[in-house]
Structures are given as structure tokens and as C-alpha cells.
């Protein structure tokens, strides 16, 4: 009986993730001195691409990147263009068998670097 109760508890606790679409929540914060343009966030499989024309300085965007059709292992990629025309790309994190290992990722773009933080809910 204790095993049955333990199984029910484990299933109940994990059921929150059973109905959630495969993917990752993301937030991109522009903490640099100027606007950034041509912002793209995607996985290395490049199946779904979240695109934003621009993010003004001291502003942010948030969304969900669906990974329902991803099947391989890979990482996440953020691309953008700085005001001086310099294109930048940051690859980070890891997903396996098309599934995200994290619930969310936050990119903070500074004038000379990009900070990346992953987490779960």
C-alpha cells in the first residue's frame, strides 16, 4: 500500500509538466547603451525562430519558444545586431532528444557582453 501511495504522489507532483508543451520560456533584456535590432532566438535545429525587429535600451521582450517538433540534441542561440552594425551570436544551454532541460532562460545584453541564466520553475 505504501508503494501505491508513493507512486500516486510522484505522479501527482510530476503531472504539472505532463501537459506543458515542450519548449522554453525566454526573456531578452537590453541593458546596453543603445537599441539592438534583428533579434532572433532559436535552437540549433532552427525549427522555430522567435524574431523581434528591435529591443530598445532598458526594455525587454518575453515569449515561449516551442520545441514540439525538435528531435535531436542541441543548444539555444541568440542573435542580434548592435547599433554599430556588429552582429553577435551567443550559443548556450543544452537540450536533449528535442526536449528542454530547463523551464526558462534569461539573456541580459550589456554594452560589451551577454549574460545568460537558465532555471526551472
Automatic annotation (TrEMBL):
This is Lipoprotein. The lineage of its organism: Bacteria, Pseudomonadati, Bacteroidota, Flavobacteriia, Flavobacteriales. The keyword Signal applies. It comes from Flagellimonas allohymeniacidonis. The keyword Signal applies. Keywords: Signal. Residues 1-20 form the signal peptide.
